[in-house]
Design a protein that fits this description.
Distance between the termini: 62 Å
Structural class: alpha+beta
Radius of gyration: 22 Å
Order of helices and strands: HEEHHEEHEEEEEEHHHHH
Number of helices: 9
Number of strands: 10
Largest sheet: 6 strands, mixed
């Protein structure tokens, strides 16, 4: 039995969902049946969805505490080739604040409650008891790894684990984002400012449908966000009906899928340019 497999079984016995990582700290790829989520995927750990594939598929969603699965013939080759062990923090009721450099560590020491700390190659993992939404780049050098995310297992760390504080939860709350980047000038609405779309039954429905389209994206999130922004602007971009609140809803939907504020702004600007706005 490999050292990685022994570690995984130990984590599973402690109630921590685990999976192997290949070289590059990335999960093993999907099997041919599940390539590009053709099987329907597994959206989260509690409701596995339509896919019942026994192979090591779907990245973080494959993490399990079942020793029979971990030690199964289907996973045997992956453990032989594994370069590291990962776990699903949210599935274990944990949140990892991933501090990627010295500056991020200095910020954490000044702003976050003391908790269990695990040294990493470039920084530290600060572990808190409690799960939350994951998000990347919440600050320079700081990622949040919890639900629908995996973290590399680097040992149990030192210190007493604290309860997830509000200051960490607040890191993923985005400030309202302007409807249009400052450098973009949008023409005044036609018809003396009258907007044929300024009705709840049309405009709000369109925004809600756009939010849903982004939320349901299972791959190519960047492209989906851009196409959705393009569709909204092609309908509402010339008449002036879009408000900051509407655009903030779209940006927030994209950021919940892991997009950064910069990616959102770039996609919005590119869509405006494409439409000649």
């Amino acid at each position: 039995m490999s050292a990685h497999l022994r570690t995984a079984l130990g984590l599973a016995a402690a109630g921590v969902p685990t999976l192997p990582l290949r070289v590059g700290k990335v999960p093993f790829g999907n099997c041919p049946t599940c390539t590009k989520n053709a099987c329907g995927g597994r959206p989260n750990m509690k409701t596995p969805g339509p896919c019942t594939c026994p192979h090591l598929c779907h990245g973080w969603a494959a993490a399990t505490t079942d020793p029979n699965v971990i030690n199964s013939p289907m996973w045997a080759r992956a453990w032989r080739e594994a370069a590291a062990v990962a776990y699903h923090p949210g599935g274990a009721g944990l949140t990892v604040v991933d501090l990627d450099n010295a500056e991020a560590i200095v910020w954490a020491r000044a702003n976050l409650p003391v908790t269990r700390i695990v040294p990493t190659t470039r920084g530290e993992h600060w572990l808190y008891r409690g799960a939350m939404q994951s998000a990347n780049s919440v600050r320079p050098g700081v990622d949040i790894k919890s639900s629908m995310q995996y973290a590399r297992w680097l040992g149990s760390g030192t210190g007493t684990m604290a309860t997830l504080p509000d200051v960490v939860r607040a890191l993923i709350v985005k400030k309202p984002i302007p409807a249009h980047p400052a450098s973009v000038t949008v023409p005044a609405p036609a018809g003396g400012g009258a907007c044929p779309h300024r009705t709840p039954t049309y405009l709000d429905r369109g925004i809600a449908m756009a939010e849903q389209r982004i939320a349901e994206a299972r791959e190519a999130v960047h492209a989906t966000v851009y196409r959705t922004f393009l569709a909204v602007l092609s309908t509402h971009g010339r008449c002036g009906c879009l408000t900051d609140a509407h655009t903030a809803r779209l940006f927030n939907a994209a950021q919940r899928k892991g997009e950064t504020a910069r990616h959102c702004t770039d996609a919005w600007t590119n869509a405006l340019t494409r439409l000649g706005l």
